[in-house]
Design a protein that fits this description.
Elements: E1 2-3, H1 7-19, E2 25-29, H2 36-40, E3 43-48, H3 58-67, E4 72-74, H4 84-92, E5 96-98, H5 102-109, H6 111-120, H7 135-149, E6 156-157, E7 169-170
Parallel strand pairs: 1-2, 1-4, 2-3, 4-5
Antiparallel strand pairs: 6-7
Length: 171
């Protein structure tokens, strides 16, 4: 199993894999060349000078997995775990991606679809407005929402993990 992560995330995956008799290959960037996860893995491959960019390089990670003879990739959390493109690329390369299918990653990455799925499954969700219209109409709608629900309120972008990558916002 190739572990497409570093640090304590990789350590945890390696320990679990070893307890199951699974051989591990760690990938690492030059700044991580003295870290514990490299020593714990059965093999380690330096993927670049870093910092961080190489852990996000889908093509490089898949190429190394194939070259090392691995058939499975575990990305832990962070980095590529939320990348539907990575999960899809693993499948196209004939690799097993340990994680949800790319379609699920895409759906859960869309806050509107994820909330709709939760509601359909009778999972309680935080009240919200849905997509707000631009300009004064949006301001009026959010003020009405706040008057009904109370303060504080949170405005959150529909797309993007950090909240700044979309012009569409919802409460």
């Amino acid at each position: 199993m190739l572990i497409a992560n570093r640090g304590e995330v990789a350590v945890s995956i390696i320990k679990t894999a070893k307890s199951m008799g699974v051989k591990t290959v760690a990938v690492y960037e030059k700044p991580d060349n003295e870290t514990n996860f490299i020593r714990l893995a059965d093999a380690a491959v330096m993927i670049g000078d870093g910092p961080v960019a190489d852990y996000l390089n889908i093509d490089k990670i898949i190429r190394i997995a194939l070259e090392s003879g691995d058939d499975t990739i575990h990305s832990g959390y962070g980095f590529l775990v939320e990348s539907a493109d990575f999960a899809e690329a693993c499948g196209k390369a004939g690799l097993i991606f340990i994680g949800p299918p790319s379609q699920v990653i895409r759906q859960l990455g869309d806050k509107i679809i994820a909330k709709r799925m939760a509601l359909q499954a009778d999972i309680p969700v935080v009240p919200g407005t849905g997509i707000l219209p631009p300009g004064e109409d949006g301001i009026r709608e959010i003020e009405a929402f706040a008057d009904k629900q109370g303060y504080p309120i949170l405005l959150k972008a529909v797309a993007g993990g950090a909240g700044g990558e979309s012009e569409k916002s919802k409460a």
